[in-house]
Amino acid sequence: MLNTNDIGKVFPPVTAAVEKGRLRFFAKAIGESNPIYTDEAAAKDAGYESLPMPPSFFFSLKMDVPNPFENYEKVGASLARILHANQAFVYHQSVMAGDSLTFESHVADIYDKKAGALEFLVEKTKVSNQRGQHVADMTTTLVVRN
Amino acid sequence: MIGFDDVHVGDELPVLQTKAISRTTLALFAGASGDHNPMHIDIDFAQKAGMDDVFAHGMLSVAYLTRLLTGWVEQAAIKKINVRFTAITQLFAEISCSGIVKEKFERDGTKLVLLMIDAKDQNGEIKISGSAEIALN
Fold first, then answer.
1. Over chain A, what is the mean pLDDT?
2. Do B32 and A29 touch (CB under 8 A)?
């Protein structure tokens, strides 16, 4: 069970490096064949400093900690019962391999539907780079099936 | 490169058709995406949780949707993506991603195109639907 007292709870920040090898592996996993995502020379020819980080990879990098689901479990959302309900990204600046990103997250909302049979956890995350520039925002909504 | 004036309300993006999602697809995506939730890679865990089998990460189809967008415009043009997961994506699903221009507008001096996007399986069942904002000159 979730508890609305956890609205506003701040999760520990996560800092993670954007690594070329990991971006190449991600490109392979999602069937991306555009060489700018895997070949640094192609990326540079296209005007990028290095491999660009693809748009949904923010979600992945945020999970670059020993137990990425710990925050959710601590507020009562167990892994076996959660589903992803909604995901939003707002992009402010490009991110490249070689950057380091910091993710600052908090619980923005908790609510239920169907008399508590479904509970929703809304997490908002601000993403900054190593220069302190605000590069993106993410909103993740999880549904807990009770 | 596509310009703002080249785009019209009702225009459809070229459909992105992906290959059937296999257990290998999910294993690779788990490793590459960092989402190691066993629900997607471990049938024993999934069955204990009351599912018949593992199912695909929702974010895999989101990644396919981002390929739809980056196949159409440069990545830097993408300003917002907002999607809702409407159904679980089963193993062996063949996901196709579509987009249609819903609106053209200006905000703070930036010319933007609002797209409605979705990801469907081979039976036409919508798995993900939502919108994206693209800045064009």
1. 96
2. yes
